[in-house]
Amino acid sequence: MAARSVWAVRRLVQRLLASSAASEGRGWPHPFSTATQRTAGEACSSEDPPDELGPSLAERALKLKAVKLEKEVQDLTMRYQRAVADGENIRRRTQRCVEDAKIFGIQSFCKDLVEVADILEKTTEYISEETEPGDQKLTLEKIFRGLSLLEAKLKSVFAKHGLEKMTPIGDKYDPHEHELICHVPAGVGVQPGTVALVRQDGYKLHGRTIRLARVEVAVESQRRL
């Protein structure tokens, strides 16, 4: 059995040697020859780049990316700083406008009131200069004309600026518009719970009550306080 195995191995070796000789005769390189190995090594070396080029290309790409990102960061930083500066300027302008509105919001009203003061001053000067001593009737007439002119001007100024005097006589008592002074007995034509008398006028500015009218309210006789 062992002799037969040895004989089979010898036959296999002879066949391999014969095949190798035939290949060399036809000019084919032996698969295990040095030339074949060298050719294969050269082919591999010609196709595959050296290992040193890989890291250098990657490093160069990272540097380019870092430069690009740095430029983007600088651009965003400049935009942010510019936006912050613009916002601060807007805030300052808005604050200045608000302060000016608080200070000069009644500028137009004050300008009209100056005209009322001019009328009052001229009336006083006119009375003091042209009135003869002892002529009280003429003095009272001039005072009346001056006060009438002054009242008309004041009403014009109030109407121009939305200031309205309330006339609540006969209206139902409203605590949001009237300040109750006292109760009075309801008389003829006066309904209980309504304003019977105004002690001090109330005013509204553009529909909003800025001063309550001080009033007396009518009630039934038995409910009088």
UniProtKB/TrEMBL annotation:
Residues 59-86 form a coiled coil. Residues 23-55 are annotated as: Disordered. Keywords: Acetylation, Chaperone, Coiled coil, Mitochondrion, Transit peptide. Its main location: mitochondrion. It is found in: Mitochondrion matrix. CDD domains: GrpE. GO terms for molecular function: adenyl-nucleotide exchange factor activity; protein homodimerization activity; protein-folding chaperone binding; unfolded protein binding. InterPro entries: GrpE, GrpE_CC, GrpE_head. GO terms for cellular component: PAM complex, Tim23 associated import motor. GO terms for biological process: protein folding; protein import into mitochondrial matrix. Pfam families: GrpE. PROSITE patterns: GRPE. Essential component of the PAM complex, a complex required for the translocation of transit peptide-containing proteins from the inner membrane into the mitochondrial matrix in an ATP-dependent manner. Seems to control the nucleotide-dependent binding of mitochondrial HSP70 to substrate proteins. Stimulates ATPase activity of mt-HSP70. May also serve to modulate the interconversion of oligomeric (inactive) and monomeric (active) forms of mt-HSP70. Belongs to the GrpE family. Probable component of the PAM complex at least composed of a mitochondrial HSP70 protein, GRPEL1 or GRPEL2, TIMM44, TIMM16/PAM16 and TIMM14/DNAJC19. This is GrpE protein homolog. It comes from Neovison vison (American mink). The gene is GRPEL2.
